[in-house]
Amino acid sequence: MSRTPCKPGLPAREQHKAGRMELLVTPFETFERNVRDQLARCLGAGGFDPARDIEAITVNRWPHGYGYEYNPLFDPQWAPGQAPHEIGRKPNGRITIANSDSGATAYTDVAIDQAFRAVSELFER
User: Fold this and answer.
1) What pLDDT, on the 0 to 100 scale, is given for residue 63?
2) I need a labelling partner for 96 at 20 to 30 A (CA). Which of 21, 41, 117, 120 fits?
3) Residue 29 has what pLDDT?
4) Of 118, 114, 3, nearest to 65 (Cα)?
5) CB-based burial of residue 125 (10 Å sphere; 0-12 exposed, 13-18 middle, 19+ buried)?
6) Are 61 and 24 in contact (CB under 8 A)?
7) Is-contact 83 72, C-beta < 8 A?
8) Beta-strand (E) ranges in the chain?
């Protein structure tokens, strides 16, 4: 099951921020209630009983799933090194930043690439 919160009518960048915030502030109980309700409606006719048949519910609250990917139609073309994700990942002493946001996308391969970059930056020092 997956849910992608958004706020229609807002610009894409603002929708990403709103979606992240919604994921972070929604209590687990709300996720649990909604999962149980949805499964009961989908599977109840076949005999599914959420109280009996659900052993546990895990919620992966991954706001990095909302890593903003630049849109060439609406976002500016920054000079090399000046895009927000590049500025935000600049090393500070022995601290380096690695996540999907630091690559300006929400994909696992990008997070892995950014981790490699961040560790490499430490070795360069």
Assistant:
1) 60
2) 21
3) 95
4) 3
5) exposed
6) yes
7) no
8) none
108 token code pair? 């696992």
5 neighbors 19 (Cβ within 8 angstroms): yes
pLDDT averaged per 10 residues in sequence order, the chain, 125 residues: 82 83 90 96 97 91 70 90 94 91 88 94 89
Q: Please check whether residue 35 is in contact with residue 7, taking contact to mean a CB–CB distance below 8 angstroms.
A: no
Contact 100, 67 (CB under 8 A): yes
Q: Which two tokens stand for residue 38?
A: 């949805």
In this structure, which amino acid lies at residue 44?
G
Alpha carbon distances (Å) from 42 to 19, 20, 55, 70 = 25, 27, 18, 37
Two tokens, residue 65? 């799933």
What one-letter code names the amino acid at 12? A
Sign for the CA dihedral angle at 66, 71, 74, 77 comes to positive
pLDDT for res 65: 58
